[in-house]
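fyi for ur records
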Amino acid sequence: MVVEKEIFVGAVNRIYFTDGMIKYDMIAFDSFDKNKEPVPKEKLRVVMTPESFIKSYNTIQHLIEIGFFKAKKNIDLCPRE
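which gave:
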């Protein structure tokens, strides 16, 4: 696989379903505000077919099941601004 560009992201900001496609916006925290809180900056939008999204989800679930990394409990998946 040849990687054309690599972008570091810190989190998924929003997930949409529109025009039959899954879209999710990725953010990074490149700076801090006056209260020393991280400031999110939009970095990338990923667009996938629903089938590709499910395959990705299943891959992540498999990695959790085999202990590659641990899922955190009690994460707010839909934070309100």
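The two ends are 38 Å apart (CA to CA). thats all i got for now
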